[in-house]
Specification:
251 residues; alpha/beta; Rossmann fold; six-stranded mixed β-sheet; four-stranded antiparallel β-sheet; 40% helix; binds adenosine-5'-diphosphate; binds magnesium ion
């Protein structure tokens, strides 16, 4: 599924190397988590995979089912089945949520050389997905994320994921702001979408999120590299002892 090899990334603006050789292999159907101290490069990894400007890949590769992700335009990444959810999703005043989602689905289909989804089929699809996620019709009509509460934004992010049916989902739950309810939303959403053909990379500061999601593999990132990988017990170790011991072991 997703294969990252020796990925080196620096900032374009300043001479600063952030990722210093990241290796990661995620198989179909697996949930991997990345934890690590603040500033270790976790968000940078997700930004580079999403194609955000400002980062330069100086070495290494990232492929999705053998296709070079780093060479793709952002919409090609979506068409290839990559989905990235960020903590603070953009607000798009004047564009209804439903219209936005339909545009996203159609641009994904166009990039795959498929026909547009009909209005009736889309309505049916979105009603079904929204119902499963307990999203009310009102939220579908409102402008994208405008005035949404933190919980509603999270719910919407999960809806976007459900509608686009990606094969590789990357969620970056950065820093503060994920309360218990939002954590439950995200973990229920991820668990509902878990499937033998779909993989997840969950980047998080919150060990407790991993209590609900139960990842197959946990990685610890420090100073631009993955310094340890293991099972869910690694997240517990972080919860109990912090990063100090783990980082000392790997140094
Ligand atoms: P994490 O998500 O693990 O907290 P980040 O990827 O956000 O780490 O940041 C890694 C390092 O890169 C930090 O030292 C951060 O300050 C720096 N960094 C990331 N993006 C930028 C940027 N656009 N400008 C300046 N420094 C940045
Ligand atoms: Mg950070
Ligand atoms: Mg971060």
């Amino acid at each position: 599924m997703l294969t990252i090899k020796d990925l080196h990334v620096r900032l374009e603006e300043e001479e600063k190397q952030i990722l210093k050789g990241v290796d990661l292999e995620i198989e179909p159907g697996k949930v991997h988590a990345i934890m690590g101290p603040n500033g270790s490069g976790k968000s940078t990894l997700s930004y580079v995979l999403s194609g955000r400007d400002g980062y330069e890949v100086t070495a290494g590769s990232a492929t999705l089912d053998g296709e070079d992700v780093l060479e793709m335009e952002p919409e090609e990444r979506a068409a290839a089945g990559l989905f990235l959810a960020f903590q603070y999703p953009v607000e798009i005043p004047g564009v209804g949520n439903m219209t936005f989602l339909r545009t996203a689905v159609n641009s994904q289909r166009a990039a795959r050389g498929e026909d547009e989804v009909s209005a009736a089929d889309f309505l049916k699809l979105i009603r079904e997905k929204a119902k499963a996620l307990k999203i009310d019709a009102d939220m579908l009509k409102r402008p994208v994320n405008v005035g949404f509460s933190g919980g509603e934004k999270k719910r919407n992010e999960i809806l976007q994921m459900a509608v686009l049916e990606p094969k590789m989902c990357i969620l970056d739950e950065t820093d503060s702001g994920l309360d218990v309810d939002a954590m439950k939303l995200v973990s229920d959403g991820v668990n509902a979408l878990r499937d033998a053909g779909r993989s997840f990379l969950v980047i998080t500061h919150y060990q407790r999120l991993l209590d609900h999601i139960k990842p197959d593999v946990v990685h610890i990132m420090a100073d631009g590299r993955i310094v340890q990988s293991g099972g869910p017990e690694l997240a517990l170790e972080v919860e109990n002892n912090g990063y100090g011991d783990l980082l000392a072991e790997s140094a």
